[in-house]
Amino acid sequence: MREHEASRNEMAGSTLKVGQMRIERIKPDSVWTKIETCKLTTLIAPSGYGKTTMLQEWAAQTDLEVGWMSLEEEDIQRVAFWKKAILHMPGLPLEERKKLLDIIQSASYSPTHFIATWCAYLREHSVAGALIIDDFHLMTNSNELHELTSLLEEMPNTFHIIVSGQVFPGLSMKRLLRQRQVLQITKRDLIFTEEEMESYIRKHLHKEPTEAVVQNIVQQTQGWAAGLQLIHMYEQFQEDYSELQFSNIVVAKQLIQEIVQSLPENERNYLLSTSILNTMHVRLCDYIVGTRRGRVIMRRLKTQGLLIENQEEPGWFTYNKHFRTYLKEMLDMHSTDINNLYIRASVWYENEQMLLMAIQYAWKAGDLDRVKQLLVKEAPRLLHEGRVDQLQEWIGKLPRKFIYQLELGIIYGWVQCLRFQPELAQRHAYMMEEQLLRRELKFSEEEEKRHFADLYTLKSFISLLEDDAKSTLDHASKALIYNENSSRYFSHSVDYNRHDATILHSPMGGGGDLRAVQRVYDALAHTVTNESMFSGYYHLTMAELAYEWGMASKVKNHLEQALTIADLFGLPGLLVPAYILKARHEMEQQGDAQTAKATLHALKDMLTRSNTSADWFKKAEAARTRIAIHQGDTKRIQNWLSLFVLQEPPMQQKSLFEYITLVWAYAALGEVEMAQHYIKKLLPLVKFGHRISAEIELYVIQAVLLYPNERDQALLSMKDALRLSADHRYLRTFWKNGETVRDILNELMESSEVPKKHQKYVEQILAYWSEGTTEQKLQNKLTTRELQLVYHLQLGKRNNEIADDLELSLGTVKVYFHRIYEKLGVKNRKQAKELAAGLDFSDIL
After folding, report:
1. Residue 778 CB partners (closer than 8 Å, separation 6+)
2. CATH number of the domain to which 787 belongs
3. In what residue span(s) does the HTH luxR-type domain sit (predicted)?
């Protein structure tokens, strides 16, 4: 990133200059005034014709807001190219830039979605600006060129893109040409005219131009801007330049060689050795050259106009890019070991903890072993930030044998896992496991434990994506045995007590001990400090727990954050549960079936763009069928049933959600025998997989189905459900099965078949159906102490006054109000006061 910024600042630092002198060349009637009338401007000319200088002069004169990006070799891949374009795009607010960066770095990246979103932002904010892409000839990737073409065609006419380079890449312009939206500027628009040459000689060389001198310079330079630049550089060392010939690049190279040769040997060596760098710092240059006099040398070179300082980052410099090109060619002709210079640059950046730059210079040196070591070192951070494509690109360039080596092999497994290929990741993980178990690799005991922890953390996450509860728990337990602090590659992914909790409580039909899961995740709350995969699963789990316990405001807060992470990383194992929970929340708590349908439709669109496996589509379609069940849409239920029976998947843990939906579907159509048949087949599976929530749900459905005709058996099924759920306080699982559950529970209470320790729990479930006004239902949710606090709130008292009146600490009062807000589904005191205005406080007065 430092070099990217320096590249941009190099352009800004040398605006409107040839050598060290200002020249104004753009005339009111020139071709440059037409840029604002076209979406695309192409500026194509050989090196040294002043493309950059002329664009800077135009940028200084236009009323448009202009962004500038100079491409480097490392910018030609998709993520790097678009990330740089977004950062330099003028006119967009910071939030929109962040959203575009999230899309481009998402594992579920879709070019169509990305371009459409970008153009929508340009129109929404009425952006009138231009983006200049310099050195565009480096961009040769067909995919990025195709996407740029799409952007040009779809973006509003108020925005302009200008590409500048030595040759024209394969950018399709047919449609834009038909619309007359392309301006083509070539070499003939850049060459110096005789009039400009005269002005240059008079103003900047301080000589009176004779016709012979002008004709000589025009003839020799052919209007080549670099020729004038070299004259200015040369006159600092030699007085007589009348015999110089600039008719071709070879002569120019010879001239620069003469300039360099005229310098002292230490300065000459400094120039040549540091020409490998895109940007330079005195400490970096000293390390490469092996000198301690770099500060003195760089000050002298800057004085002579050979260095340009980065204005935003003092201490960082760049060469004039044409001068640097010739220096590198001179370096190639020397016997210097250039690869060693690249390695020294890589080592310096590694020591400075700038590992991405260290990797780039290791690539340039061709030191693949060093690249591998740096990748292993940097991979945890890249994975944490979701930069999977960057890792995939680098690993793909390495020889195939490298991914079968242990450390890089584990990283490769993570990359494949996060690119929606858990089966491939699983096979690779097994190969790595075999290497460790054979113990052929000579590791210390500590290293071996670390590798096992990394490996089993990977395998637990693969199992999590495949919705395999038992395997997830097994692998997580093994990871914790080898390293109690979990793995560096997915921090906290298995940081829960393996004795007290099962895997995440998932709407896919997973779940377990809700109280234990809550305790564990409450303890881990302080570790959720930023956007990471773990924080997504954390917020999804907390939202699901709050949903089960009827805490509407808490559901909303955690669900919003889970959805943000799900959209960012695009992992089906996170994306699908988050969107299904959102749809359930909209349908069951807000009564908005249409919005729930739209949510699931958006989910299917995202899964289509990410090219994910069919298993996740089946879960999304099953969730859509549950909405149809809720609405009584028998036609849609029957259509889904016919397709399900035709393509019936194996009955296993990862298909549990679809099979429970199947039970619901048969129940909704009145086909009790078929529903019972599948319940009997599913119960052993969920017991074996420790799917407590699924087991409770099946018992409740069974009780509802049996109650009209086999009452005793229905009561037994409900008692089984209560036995499993009482300690964990499952609530919504009972509520969503309708008023038949209320009748069964009332009968159990009246016949005293509910254990005394569970009676308050059953009363809490029954309160959901309590008759009365909305105020009475709200009142049933509050305890006597909570009613007292709400009463004092109605009197307009502050927290400290309430604490004094009720003889409570201020902290306790705040905790009580937090609970009250959750029960009432409000966010603040004002909303709570308005909602509780009709409550009956007679019992506490």
Report:
1. 823, 824, 835, 836, 839
2. 1.10.10.10
3. 775-840
